[in-house]
Amino acid sequence: MSAPDRLRLMPATWAAADGTVVTIRPIRREDLALEQEFVSALSASSGYRRLMSTRRPSLEELRRFTDVDDEREVALIATTLLDGKERQVGVARYVKESTADAEFAIVLSDDWQGRGLGTRLLAGLVAAAKAHGIRRLVATTHADNVGMLALAGKLGFKAEIDPRLATIANLTLDLAEWPPVRGGPQIGS
Ligand SMILES: CC(C)(COP(=O)(O)OP(=O)(O)OC[C@H]1O[C@@H](n2cnc3c(N)ncnc32)[C@H](O)[C@@H]1OP(=O)(O)O)[C@@H](O)C(=O)NCCC(=O)NCCS
User: Above 60 in pLDDT, residue 183?
Assistant: First the structure.
């Protein structure tokens, strides 16, 4: 990614309903310790939803998650300050699969789920994907992941049960049609 492109991913702030200020910014190599702490605090259920597996990511994977390949990947993390110390509370990323398509994933710490942060973080990732010329964002999730399906539906993704595996739902967002016309789902609010 060129320097001007990076500038489009400047940090943003968002206030939760209880007034807690969340910073959303691109992940950096220096965030490895934050990411480790974040991943190890995730409940088994959230970790399973994110990786679609009960395994925990290895140190090598966490390094890859934080030291991203700017040419094909964008990762946004959400952080708050706790006793003056930065704490990671979520991360959303996409990785380009071809010139047009990218696959995304998102996970929030358990205490931040259901508070609107997923909407804000994923809307930010969608906006970054659009700005970087991605035409389609896709993801797979468990067909019973009601939280992810609700979030995806809110942002305009289509959800379809995988024809080969009924426990999996495929999510697709055509960025040519994004943002939706007025009267449709509200993005980034
Ligand atoms: C899935 C996830 C990212 C959603 O983020 P979130 O911050 O909890 O979602 P939001 O609070 O922004 O809610 C978005 C919409 O979904 C709805 N929603 C969220 N969780 C829900 C749930 N468990 N059941 C029903 N609806 C739910 C909200 O009501 C909201 O709709 P509304 O604005 O019309 O009220 C988050 O719950 C998470 O990290 N889950 C674990 C990891 C995971 O499943 N990742 C997806 C793998 S691809």
Answer: no
